[in-house]
## 1
Amino acid sequence: MSKNPTELALLARGMDTRLAQTLRPAGWTLSKLQQCEAAALEALSIDQSTIARLHKRKRPPIPPVALVQVLFASRWLCCECREPIRPVVVHHIQPWAESLDHSPANLAVLCTPHHGEAHSQGDLEVTLSAEQLLVAKQTWEGQAARMDRLAIHQSTQVHVCHWWCFNHLRLFELARASGG
C-alpha cells in the first residue's frame, strides 16, 4: 500500500490504486483534479463515480500564485470601497462550484461587508452581482496600475540630486510591464 499523501487522498475518494499511482508521478494532485471538468477527468480514465466524489469535495485552496496576483493587483484593498481598515476576502466572481476557476480573472478582493453583499439576495437578485463586481474589479485594478506608473514617475522628479540614484532601465521596465 502506498504511503504517498496524494495517492492516499485519491484512494480515499475511491480511485483505483493503479490509476492513483499513474497520475501522481504525472504531476496530478487532488487539488488539480478537483479543478478539472468531467470531460478532462474522463480523458484520464477516471470513472464517473470517482469524478462525482472529486467534485463533491470541498473547494481546493486558491493557488498561491493566483492569490498573490489578485491581492497585489488590488493593493490588498476591496475593489468596491477601498477602505484600508477593513479586512479583505478573495471572492470568486463566477462561483467556483460552477466554474472550477481559480484564475486571477475570476477572483476579486472584497472587504467582509461587500463579500457578504456578493453572497446575499435582495428582493430580486444578488445585492452585488457578478457583473457589478467585475466592473468594480477592472476599474480599481486599472486605477491602481496607473497610480504605480505615476508613483514611479513622481519619485524620479522630487529632487534632482536623487535622479542619479535610480536604475533608469529598471524604471522603464517597470513602467512597460505595468502598461505605461
## 2
Amino acid sequence: MVGDLNLHHPSADPLRTFDSEEYNLSHPYYSQASEHGYSLLHQPGLYTYIPFAHNARPSVLDLTFANSPLFPSFSRWDTPLPWTGSDHVPVLITLESPRFRLPPPSPNWSKTNWSSVLPALPSLVPPPPPSACPSSTFQEWFDTHANKVRTLISSNTPVSRPSPRSKPW
C-alpha cells in the first residue's frame, strides 16, 4: 500500500518533533498496519513532501507499507528521481523476486590453501582457559582463540561468487 495519508509518525520521520495531536492521529493507522502484518518500508527521514510555502518544513507524508507475503520481495525504497514541480517527490520502490536474488558469496572450502594454513596452526594453540572464572570470561577466551583460527582459514580460502546460471548443486 502506498499513500499520501498526510500523517506524521516517528518511525517514518524520526528527526521531526511531534505534538500530541499529530501522534494521536497517526497512531491508529500504524497500529492497524502492524496488527495486520504490514511493515513500513521507508528509509527513515527521507522527505517525500517539499512544501511551496517558505514557513513550512519538509516532511515524510507518502507512506509505503508491505504485507508479510510481499515483504521478502522488497529490495529498496528511495527518492532518486528529480523533483517534478509538485509538492511531493516521486518515490521509487524496487521489488525483486527472492527466487532470482543471487545468494551471497560463500567460502569455497574445497579450494582452501592448506599449505599456507597448516604451518601457522601451531602458533595459534591457545593458552589454558582461565581457572574458576565466570562463563562470560570463558566465552570471551574461547571466542578470541576460535576467531584467530577462523580468520586464518578464511583468509586462505577463496570465495565462490554464484551467478544466476549457477547450478543449485
## 3
Amino acid sequence: MSGVLNEVARFISAPGADAVKALLSSKGSVSIPLGAVTCEDGTALLKQANAVTGYSQIANKEIVINIPVNTNPANGLALGFTTALPIDMDPAYPVEVHVLVGKAANTDALTLDCEVYPTGVANVANSDIQLTAATAIVAAGSELTFKCGVPAEFTKGGLSVVLTLGGTNDGDAVYIYSIWLEYTKLLLNG
C-alpha cells in the first residue's frame, strides 16, 4: 500500500498528498476530551480539591484528571464517558480504548480496568465487550490499551465506557492525561 501512496504523492501537491494518505489510511481515532469524563453515575468532575477526584494542572503544565492520594478503590471510584462509533469503522476488527495514565509516585500497586457497553437502535443494556484484563499503572506513565470486540449490529451506535481504579491507594495520586479510541476503517463500501 505504501508504494501506491508514494506514487500518488508524486503527482499531487504536499497538502493534497497528505489528504489522500489520510483517506487511504486503515487506522482511525476518536479523541475523548477529558471534559467529557464524569463519575460513573454522570456527576460532573470539578476542579480537584482535597480528597475529591477532579481536574488539576500539574506544575503549571499538563491538565489532567487527578485521582488524589488516599482515594480508596474499594469505595467504588469509577469514571465514565460515552461516544458514538465512527461511521467508517470496520466491525471485523476490534476497537481499542487507549488511556495515557501515570502515578505521582510509585508507592502503591494500582490498576485500571475498563468496561465497554455497546448501544444501538432498539438494542441497549448489553454486556461488557471489553476483552483486556485490568492493567497495572506505572509511575512514569504508560499507555494502557483495552481491546473490544464490537458486534456488527452496533456499527451505527455508541459505546459507554467505565474506567475503574483498582488496588490500594495509600500514597499515590493517579493522573489521567488523555483518552482516545482507535479503530480500523472500512476503506471500501460494497
